[in-house]
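Posting here for the record, re: iron/sulfur cluster.
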Amino acid sequence: MLRYIDFGLSHMEVPGEASICIYITGCPNQCPDCHYPELQSKDTGELLNENIEIILSFYSHIASCVCFLGEGEAGDTERNELLNYAEKAHGRGLMCCLYSGRDIVIEGWMRVFDYVKIGSYKKGRGPISSPTTNQRMYKNTSAGFVDMTSEFW
Ligand code: SF4
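Prediction output follows.
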């Protein structure tokens, strides 16, 4: 079950979107120089399934997107939970973004998201706002996922 430790509205995480950002704990990636180590804690924070409707309602009058910052332990249970939340968000007319800290190519189950960010944090490469970053942000278009990372620069 996914847990979170904070949420808030931000224009920074997804270019062009006012995003309700949900900070999900239980991250297993253990990036050296992790910039948010609290997100690595398991069993920390509130259960997201108990509060997702309240969170979506809180900013829904000014938000255009929901951004899930993390996938928890990234197992089947967490993925099904995220897919359920994406459906809820889309039902409210909100776009959906997933931040994965894993070094992967986009996985099939992620196709429900309008935006997907992938890649671990490497201090020497910088965050996604740096042109030297290893991280990538993709937008889901009719032509498939398109790399939009440069919109952060
Ligand atoms: S993915 Fe993010 S939260 Fe997880 S270890 Fe890496 S920097 Fe920290």
